[in-house]
Amino acid sequence: MLSALSLNNVALIKKQTIEFGKGFNCLLGQSGAGKSIIISALNFSLGAKADKNLVRSGENQLRVDAVFDDLSQEAIDYLKDQEIDVENEIIITRTMTSEGKSSIKVNGFPVTVKCLQGLSELLADFCGQHDSIGLLNVNNHIFLLDRFIGKEIDQIKLELSEKIDQLKECESKIKKLGGSEIERARTKELLNYQVQEIESANLVAGEMETLKERFDFISSAENIFDKVGESVSKLEEQRESVTTLLYDAKSALSGLSNFKDIEECHSRIENCYYEVKDIVETLMTIKNSTEFDPIELERIDSRLDMIKKLSKKYGKTVEDILVYLAKCKKELEELEDSEFMLNKLQNEKSSLEKKVDQICQDLSTIRKNYASKLEVQIMKQLEDLEMKGTYFKVDFEQIDFSKKGFDGVKFMFSANKGQEAKDLNKTASGGELSRLMLAFKNVLLDKEKVQTVVFDEIDSGISGHTAGKLAEKIANISKYVQVICITHTPVVASKANTFLLVEKHVIDETTVSEVKNLDKDEAVTEVARLIDGGKEVSNTAIEHAKKLFE
Question: What is the secondary structure of 272-315 as a DSSP string?
């Protein structure tokens, strides 16, 4: 639950830490005092879209810290999955500059908005005057029904999801096999052509580099012959050649082996002599084998041209082309065996479709069974909220299957006895939608994932005896989860356990909002102020407020 909310430079609030209690927390204060600022700040801390107008005028940055304790196991597991250290308390810190740049940390760990929003779904639920409009979205109806059913269908939905994934994979394999017989024939013809074209080239890995080197060598044959011949002449063939001089130098020192340094020089010269002799032999081999062969040069050029043409089709290098060849051969093998594989996959697909259909039917049977229970409970709740004679119906139609099943679910409603139930968006007024949402909240109490529910003037437009019933429903919800409620209705406020007063002041010609916790006597006075509707509070209003508290 939310234990504390710290605000810095948030709209009219300069710096404020607000402490919340268990059960029913009520935010009181005149219209415009800043109650909605607190809800906006909490919403912002839980991942709502950043609005730079929240930054206090004249300041560069706002900061909101939300402290939650007594975390659910689901929330703890979620945080651990995100590799965030957590025991039984978290601090969510979110900042935003006046330019709209935002940063988020959970227990000091930076997180994304998406991560925060995933966590928020396990922490708090917001229900305002306009949130009941969500009931008008038919797409939400099946989720509400499934939430009412609870864990009984979780395993079935999981199995359905797995079977649909398997069915999609099976259909993908069928498509990869070439689809129709004509398409497979075309694919085989193309693959056979490509395999034949590549195999007829007799490619060898590394061939391109070898050919290029040989092409360059033959192209430079005349220059190579001259230069190598000149080098051999200077090393070996002239009277004062390098080998002759090295041999003479080696011989001159051969009789002085008793002297260590001289012997070492003799050995080094001898090594040089044999190294040069070896070089001469290698150069002679190159010289003797070097000749300009236009026929070989043309053959190599033609080979390189052929490989380049193949590389434009099948891969940049010879190695890439050979990899593509192996791929084509594998696809051909699969196509050759496609008839058998297709029959097998078609049978598998048929079996999966039957299983999916059966699971969808099982799911639909459970939903229809629970739908009648939901109808009874919702109408009972609405009756408690002074909506006697109303009719609530869960309507089903079969649609194309998905991971939700093949049920199209729609809530039907009639506010008056004897009138036909119609779509919610055609029959329910704003006040009726608010009470419907409150009815759902009470019915789904034991299915709540969150531990904090925020009601933002959900009682707007409701008064008299109905307001009292609504107050009882909110108070009932607060027995299961923490409730934070903004209200201007005395009877609703009187049900709270913790009272917070939001007031607006002008300090040094600057407007600020402040929040303070009220004791019971102060709370009675503020509820009496709601009754009187003015700054002054009459004794009659005080007595009335006391009776409400009693």
Answer: HHHHHHHHHHHHHHHHHT----HHHHHHHHHHHHHHHHHHHHH-
The set of residues, in sequence order, having a beta carbon less than 8 Å from that of 184 and lying 6+ positions away, is: 177, 178, 335, 338
Domain 1-123+450-518 has CATH 6.10.140.1670: no
Q: What's the CA gap between 499 and 18, in Å, rounded?
A: 11
In which residue are the tokens 């009941």 written? 132
> By C-alpha distance, which of 515, 478, 519 is closest to 498?
519
Kindly report the backbone phi and psi dihedral angles of residue 128, in degrees, each rounded to the nearest multiple of 5, phi listed first.
-115, -175
Q: Do residues 434 and 128 make contact, with C-beta atoms less than 8 angstroms apart? A: no
Collect all residues with Cβ–Cβ distance below 8 Å to 31 and sequence separation of at least 6.
488
> In angstroms, rounded to a whole number, what is the distance separating the alpha carbons of residues 182 and 103?
58
List the chain domain ranges. Answer: 1-123+450-518
Are 52 and 99 a contacting pair, CB within 8 Å? yes
| Residue 462 DSSP SS3 | coil
Note the pLDDT tens digit of each residue in 96-120. Answer: 998 888 899 999 999 999 999 889 8
pTM of the model: 0.63
| Termini Cα distance of the chain | 27
